[in-house]
Amino acid sequence: MSDSEGSSAVAENGKPNEKTLQVLQDMANRLRIHSIRAMCTSSSGHPTACSSAAEIMSVLFFYTMRYKQVDPEHPANDRFILSKRLSFVDVATGWFGQGLGAACGMAYNGKYFDKASYRVFCLLGDGEPSEGSVWEAMAFASHYSLDNLVAIFDVNRLGHGGILPMEHCMEIYQKRCEAFGWNTYVVDGRDVEALCQVFWKAAQVKGKPTAVVAKTFRGRGMPNVEDAESWYGKPVPKERADAIIKLIESQIQTNTNLEPKPPIEDIPQISISDVKMSSSPAYKVGDQVATRKACGLALAKLGHANDRVVVLDGDTKNATFSEIFKKEHPERFIECFIAEQNMVSVALGCATRGRTIAFASTFAAFLTRAFDQIRTGAFCETSINLIGSHCGVSVGEDGPSQMALEDLAMFRAIPNCTIFYPSDAVSTEHAVCLAANTKGMCFIRTSQPETAVIYNPEETFKVGQAKVIRQSANDKVTVIGAGVTLHEALMAAEDLSKEDVFIRVIDLFTIKPLDAATIISNAKATGGMIITVEDHYAEGGIGEAVSSAVAMEASIVVYQLAVVGLPQDGRPSELLDVCGISARHIIMSVKRILST
What is the pLDDT of residues 424-438, one digit of tens each? Predict the structure, then answer.
């Protein structure tokens, strides 16, 4: 069927002609057959869930959405989000609760950055509203009037373990969506004509996102399986599947396809590769600057270098200094409020298809709430930058709830994640610029206290390259630090030198990838003795990273200084000492090693 005969033959109320309706129904049934066959072949999958959403998928892909079939990633295509990875699915969201946040990021991109006509459709299961991240996304979409976003709830009443709380109480779904400020339609998800009409109506709505609450039945069209419990994630036995397929095939009346409507190609051409700062860092050696502030200044500076740099915030902008970016580039600052899971998902959506360089900024401790979004975001191989400030006990008086002591372990566990841990303002600015040009996920760890600038503005930095910042021919121990502990190591080195005890000091700069070559060569030059010191728990931190890197070197021994015990409130310098990572503890460790 040609486009003129089918998908473009839309009346004013969105109702297609009878021939198109039949083709859409037939295509839904073919989708059911494909899902049953695929899952019988693989002996796993969710054929009942596929069957419940078949009409929704048919209407979306062959009547409502605009896209180029031969170019699934064309920037002008409408977007579709599902918890699986296919050519037309931009974000692999994995388990429930993450897709709508990513869809919000794409819709925000389309409305405010690209200012283009493409729309975003997100299909959710009815188990997902039990996740708080869904409602974080609902609030976000409403607040920013994302009228180019459509969320479809596939309400088939059954979940993994049985009947879901709201079953088929459609009025409750409707009231909840409307309470969050969404334009909402309740529809029979088996009725292709009704689905065509509500998606057409959604396109006419201005100023609000639209929720389509579709009543469906798990296992639709499968006798003795439809709406039955205990079929979650189970393929239909082959002999039974053959009979079901034969029954469904008997209902198919046409043998034609519908061509999707082409996209409206009003999307701007952009270039975000090889982003460079306009000038060298404007700091002098000895200046006292917190790396969190240097990060905020660097983001604003980067924003001047490229107009596709976007910063997202979790209601911490006055503490992380991302407010500097907001002041200079308000149109590219996205306030996500206290909703870190959604913030990460929105950032992923913004960065999908390479349309923005996205930085999401909050306290590093709060990013632990979004670990599932972070780990599944890595599967998408989307370039996204996460900034965690207020790391470690050096947070001081703000207390243990603000102290990130597990974040390095978390991000080290993420495949292909680059971890920057700058120790002064100059290296922080370089970390921000490098992250903007690094593929995949990046994490930048920044600290609260002001620390001295130790690098000249002309210093160069590379991903995976450590810096030897203090050395002599008489060095007996290599001390490795990052962030505030690097400055403690430098103080310890200065004090020890007065006693004619000399140590080598290395700034890692990137924790992952680690500069194993520099670590090993310097350790061997100093008698094979390494002390790592970190404002982090020992588990999963710098010490374990270095130990792993030198594990095959029998002549090298690693001694780890890390935060011990449960930290309390106090001044940063006091807490560094109480927790065993101050200059005093480094000096004690050096003397103990050299005395044995």
Answer: 999 999 999 999 999
* 479: nearest Cα among 512, 447, 508: 508
Token pair for residue 255? 């043998």
Q: What is the DSSP string of 249-296?
A: HTT-------PPBPP---PPP---SS---SS-----TT-EEEHHHHHH
Q: Sort strands 467-470 and 503-507 into parallel, antiparallel or unpaired.
A: antiparallel
Cα 263 to chain center, whole Å? 27
Q: Give pTM, 2 decimals.
A: 0.94
Query: Is-contact 99 130, C-beta < 8 A?
Result: no
Sheet containing strand 477-481, edge to edge, reads 467-470, 503-507, 477-481, 529-537, 557-563
Q: How far apart are the first and last CA of the chain?
A: 85
Which tokens hold the place of 389?
């400030």
CA separation for the pair 102, 574 (Å, rounded): 42
Buried b (16+ CB within 10 A) or exposed e, 345-369: bbbbbbbbbebbbbbbbbbbbbbeb
Parallel, antiparallel, or unpaired for β 418-420 and 510-512?
A: antiparallel
Q: Reduced to 3 states, what is the DSSP secondary structure of residue 446?
A: coil
For the segment 250-308, what is each residue's pLDDT rounded down to a tens digit?
Answer: 999 999 989 999 999 999 999 888 899 989 999 999 999 999 999 999 999 999 999 99
Q: E-assigned strands of 82-217?
A: 120-125, 149-155, 183-188, 210-215
Q: Check 128, 136, 340, 534 and give the catalytic one.
A: 340
Contact 199, 212 (CB under 8 A): yes
Structure tokens belonging to residue 211: 């929720």
Distance (Å, rounded) from C-alpha 443 to C-alpha 512? Answer: 10
- Torsional class of 115: left (φ above 0), alpha (ψ -120 to 50), beta (otherwise): left
Q: Is 429 a catalytic residue?
A: no
pLDDT digits (tens, 9 = 90+) for 83-122: 647 666 777 665 578 999 999 999 999 999 999 999 999 9
Omega within 30 of 0 (cis) for the link into 513: yes
Name residue 521's beta-bridge partners: none
